[in-house]
Specification:
Elements lengths: L4 H13 L3 E3 L7 H4 L3 E3 L1 H11 L1
């Protein structure tokens, strides 16, 4: 709560540099507008998003 776009983008850079993926809860790239953000290793993120849906 209360994150600014630059907070999320800095975190996204760290995750992507480590080989992870960042997305919104639907698996898209609209997390800055929606505020719903999920991140993790590709396989783990796929499983997380399946549970969220």
């Amino acid at each position: 709560m209360g994150l600014k776009p630059w907070d999320m983008l800095a975190g996204e850079l760290l995750i992507r540099e480590a080989g992870g993926i960042v997305s919104d809860f639907q698996g898209g790239h609209n997390y800055i507008q929606s505020g719903n953000i999920a991140a993790g290793a590709p396989k783990a993120l796929k499983q997380m998003l399946a549970q969220i849906r």
